[in-house]
Amino acid sequence: MAGLALDGANPDVSLLYDINGLAADAPGWFDRVMELVGEYGTMFGMVLVALWCWWSVRRREDAVTSVAGLVWAPLAAGIALLINIPIRGFVERPRPFNDHKGLEVLIAGKTDYSFVSDHATLAMAIAVGVFVANRKFGLAAIGLAVVAGFCRVYMGVHYPTDVIGGFALGTAVALLLAPVAMALLTPLMAAIARSEKVGWLVRAKGSAARGAAGAGPGLGGPAVVPAQRAGDSERNDLAA
């Protein structure tokens, strides 16, 4: 397939020029920052968010399922990237700077096809996987993924629809396969949590005990029966 529509009247191309035009007007140091953020920074930030999320959720009662969601995040990203290989080969969309003049290309050496963006796919798949584990940290990760996608267009290496397609692919893989992945990963995380040597990877020390103590009826903890008052006991004895 010879790529997507590429003429100048295409809104995709117009938006590409609008966003990439910001790079032409920005100072050189800002372009270098955007290049670092778009190529490496957002991915590094995603790792930090995932680690912070892990450190937080392992102290909760639902640590097993939450950590399983975090483990699913990079696995979902890997699967999404594998699915993208035949998609790129089928669409065969050249990079925008190969078909359009006047773009401010901030990073050279991109010779592969453009649709869909690997960076956008990877970032959104990880972000949605983190969201499965914890909504608060997941929203932060999704924000980083959006920044990553914007940077790819700003750098002149992707069309906006490349990024949107990557977001859609990453989200679809992370969400649609999540039930199967969680069904497989949750028992594994539960087994690790019971381990004397590596249980800390899933549960912080003492978190299981705290969870059991704090759980009430219907939450996995034992039902608490109030102690019988002395007066009630005496009346019961007389009645007997």
TrEMBL record:
Pfam families: PAP2. Its main location: membrane. Residues 211-240 are annotated as: Disordered. Residues 67-178 form the Phosphatidic acid phosphatase type 2/haloperoxidase domain. Residues 231-240 have a biased composition (Basic and acidic residues). It is a multi-pass membrane protein. The chain crosses the membrane at residues 37-55, 67-87, 113-132, 139-157, 163-185. It is found in: Cell membrane. InterPro entries: PAP2/HPO, PAP2/HPO_sf. Gene3D superfamilies: Phosphatidic acid phosphatase type 2/haloperoxidase (1.20.144.10). Keywords: Cell membrane, Hydrolase, Membrane, Transmembrane, Transmembrane helix. The keyword Transmembrane applies. This is Phosphatase PAP2 family protein. The lineage of its organism: Bacteria, Bacillati, Actinomycetota, Actinomycetes, Kitasatosporales.
